[in-house]
Amino acid sequence: MASAKDDNLLTPYRTFLLDLSSKLLTDDLEKLKFACKDAVPYGKTEEVTTGFKFFDLLEQNGKISPQNLTPLKNMVKAIGRADLALEVNEFMIGNDVPDGAQQDAGLQDDNPSNGPAVRQDGGDEVVPDGLDVDLIEKKADKTMYVAADQPLEEKVETRVEAGHVSCGLLQSDPPALNDPPSAQRTTPMAHRDNIVSTTSGRRGTSAPVAQQSSTKPRLSNPEGQGIVQYVNFLVLEGYSVQIVGGKHFSTPDGEFVELRSGTQYKILLKNSHPYACNVDISIDGYDVGGWIMHGGQQFTIERSAYEAKKFTFYRVKKAPKDSGIDPSRTEDNGVVKCVFSLEAFVDIPVTVSGSPQPLMVSFAPSATVGDLKEEIQKQLNISPDRDQMLSLNNKELENHMRVRSVIESPGSLILVDVELDVTVEVSTSERCQIKIRPGEAKIIDLMQKIEAELEVPIKDQKLFYGKTRLSDNPHKGLPEKLIYSLNRTLVVIVPNYIEITVENSASGESITLKIDKEKRLTDLVQEIPSCRNMDDNQEVVFLVDGRELSPVKDTGKLKSLGICPGSRVKFEVRVLFIKVFVAGLPQGRLTVQCNPLETFQDLLNHVQSRTKMAKIGDATFSTKGRVFDPKKDLNTLQGNYFVFSS
């Protein structure tokens, strides 16, 4: 038995939209169609002539619903109909729509979360972040489809011929979904110039596409969502396709790029993997060609400037006769199909420490040694480290080298441990273990670790590997023989230290020093902090058991000079000479070197001797306002600049 409610087929929501439609002016409707241009394909809005048809179109595209009229409120407000926006808001409140619920749904297409979903060949399958390896292994070739829009129930068709191909590097590399897939390698590439065609892969029911936008490529994986979505381009397992010249839309019917009939476009292809691949392109079901894409390369395929009607979208009814469009090819028209095929991988044995059998790594010959190294580290579950050494016949391989050149050379690959244990035998019969990273360490790094372990300064170390004195070239790399040897042992000769106390006679301050007993007084001077930066007219004199010892004259070793463990040595800094600058002479300024114990009379004699002046007996000196008479001022020289007057 039907209720009264069942007989009332017109809901308040539908009644409200009909009433709102009657209040829209023709100009309002055109403004609304323009306002939703980024959310609804133009091909679907161009024949809308009434408000309720416009609202129906918004519903079909999931932009409005009885639970969410916020986008409609925003649009009518944007076109200047604040009165209608108020009515929409009142209707939402009267129908208990929570404030802010799903606000602006469908109008945020610039947000990565509303971008195209990445799909597999199997129709409704999606590629989640962290794709299952078993799923990848079932498909050796990766196929992408880009569907064209179908405005006015008519297909937009594409007729393409490859008129021009340019190759370059992406400025902003699109991120790969997953690590390089370990798929079946059934598509060999014996030569770099060979193009291998393939027809593997089938069309999905809802084709993923690439979006042309002024924004930079972005990747979004919103928390709680299993679908990875992109803006600007479609990425599947490290391969990228972008259509330049159209506008991307996401609708309940699928993802597609809308272009006006007669629009020229370009196709951008990107191989984000470090190894090469083959790509075959077909458009409208017609083969365009195939290319080898090297690791990290991008192809831009576009129309030649000298040929017409190439890489141009047309409606079926508007397509020129010479465009080659066949209306009967309904499944192929308007579809850009790109099939990516891996190059043939090879099995590479790698010797790893602690493993009795070599590790077999399947990898691409066109990749670099650095990429191969990362793959080995991944299989060993160790952190990526491009400084870890991979060697061939005890020779380190550079990261930029191609794997092809390595596998073509005889010998075995060895992955050297990230850290090596080096035994250091000390001349004092001690022994210690040092850990070193061979891929990045120098001899100086090894000596620094020895300094920290033995408390022996680097300058006092004599480091040997066999008969080679490593400490003579501290900034060189570690010897290859040491790295690949099973017995990594070094010998370091360290001094036989003694401890002595050194006291400054002038200040009474003293310090205790540890110094090699084979050193000399000149070395002892450098160990005293206050004596390291003396002027060239100063010298240190040591007092040992009442004897004055000069580093210049007494050149014997400390032990021979009576300095033993526990000795207390006093020192003082003496001035050897002073330079006096004398001005006011007929000859100009004169520099005179004097003994600091000399007097002004001695200085006058030096001046007379240097200038050959006959009458100079009554001369005086002045500095800083003071006048010195050589006959009366008999003290030693104290200043360093004097003005001569006579």
UniProtKB/TrEMBL annotation:
Biased composition regions of type Low complexity, renumbered to the chain: 99-110
Protein keywords: Apoptosis
Leader sequence segment: none
Ranges of biased composition (kind: Polar residues): 195-218
Domain Ubiquitin-like as annotated: residue spans: 346-416
This protein's record includes keyword Repressor: no
Region (Disordered) residue spans: 95-128, 169-222
Keyword Oxidoreductase part of the UniProt annotation: no
Pfam families: DED
Protein name from the UniProt record: Astrocytic phosphoprotein PEA-15
Organism in which the protein naturally occurs: Acropora cervicornis (Staghorn coral)
